Amino acid sequence: MLTPQYYLVLSAAVFCTGLFGILTRRNALLFLMSVELMLNAANINLIAFSYLWGNITGQTFGLFVMALAAAEVAIGIGIILVLYRNFDNVDVTDATTMRW
């Protein structure tokens, strides 16, 4: 039987991978995938503690986080398409010129 510590270590590793991707990448698609990794790490924590305590609340919140992630991807892809159409690349540092 796996203890919750294994799930917490896995979640921390996935979260740190996502955080590293956000801090070091300039490509908007990789930035979006890194945010998804961080949300999945939160889901692992929610479901691990839900299983540990025998409560379904963590799994319910996990479903809400997945719905939030789907909405975030839909809006993020739209923003990335506009960024690509205006600048012919998906570098997030070019978006500073889109201000008023």
Question: What do these coordinates show?
Answer:
The chain has 3 helices and no strands. The chain is an all-alpha fold and 100 residues long. It has one domain: Helix Hairpins, CATH 1.10.287. Helix 1 runs antiparallel to helix 2 (28-53) and helix 2 packs antiparallel against helix 3 (57-87). The longest helix has 31 residues, at 57-87. It is elongated. Pfam families: Oxidored_q2. GO terms for molecular function: oxidoreductase activity, acting on NAD(P)H.
CATH architecture: Orthogonal Bundle
Poorly predicted runs of 5 or more residues? none
SSE sequence, one letter per element: HHH
- Number of strand elements: 0
Distance between the termini: 57 Å
Q: What is the 3D form?
A: elongated
Give the rounded overall mean pLDDT. Answer: 90
Cα radius of gyration in angstroms: 17 Å
Count, helices: 3
The main β sheet shows up as:
none
Assigned CATH class? Mainly Alpha
Helix/strand-derived category reads mainly alpha
What count of structural domains? 1
Helix content range of the residues, please? over 70%
Please name the CATH topology: Helix Hairpins
Q: Estimate the strand proportion.
A: under 5%
Main location: membrane
Keywords: Membrane, Oxidoreductase, Transmembrane, Transmembrane helix, Transport
Enzyme class: oxidoreductase
EC number: 1.6.5.-
